[in-house]
Design a protein that fits this description.
This protein is mostly beta strands and 245 residues long. It has two domains: 10-110 and 230-243, Thrombin, subunit H (Beta Barrel), CATH 2.40.10; 125-227, Thrombin, subunit H, CATH 2.40.10.10. It has helices at residues 39-42, 154-165, 230-243; strands at 2-3, 12-17, 23-31, 34-37, 52-56, 71-80, 94-98, 125-130, 145-152, 175-178, 193-198, 201-210, 221-225. Strands 8-9-10-13-12-11 form a six-stranded antiparallel β-barrel. The chain starts with a strand and ends with a helix. The model has no long low-confidence stretch (mean pLDDT 86).
Length: 245
Amino acid sequence: PGVAGAGEWPWHAAILEKDNAVYVCGASLIDETWVLTAAHCVEKFLGSIQQLKVRLGEHDVSTTDEPTEHEERGVAQVVVHPNFDNKTLMNDLALVRLEKAARRRSNIDIVCVPSDQLPLTRNKTCYVTGWGKQTEDSNHSVVLKEIPVPLWENQACEKALRTSFGARFTLPPTAVCAGAEGRDACDGDGGGPLVCEDRGRWFQVGIVSFGVGCGRADVPGVYTRVSFYQNWLHDVVIQNRRNKP
């Protein structure tokens, strides 16, 4: 898997525990005051959101000697999708509101939320980013990694996953699959973005949700399909703006 260039994926964010900076999950900046992540990452913090912080613009977690500094924000609110099921990981997404808006600059920026009209063809190469493991047996990465992953059609993905989850497994339309042998999200990448380019703009197509191992042959990773939730995302973000005093 490739190493990302500094500031190459400026929407990629990290959710950390505030006191000891322990890494919780990946996330992505979709609005100046909101990051998008997986519900399974933050559900357990719903009663203690003050324990969390969000780091923006990070690249190499092992050093502070970088040309562009990261920024950190406290967490003001966590909104888990109301239909999230932590047994099946259906509707695995959540929004995290920053205490203070992000300042957009070279290494901190917003990724687009796609509509259903975004053309996603089979085998289109998209990218997943994160500080997760390179392989099932390796350590977590200290530098943000970028992995090119081909998209799968849902029918083929469902068939591939039945070898692990049984013949009754059904893949919901709220999921999207991507990956190839040796190219996959892995442990520590959860909540992070799967992005695809269309006419010069980057759209977040998926949120890292679950998989079977990492990068195994013929077993793609499963992501929450962001376009399915565009109305919910819009409503939460816009409603919050309206409620501001």
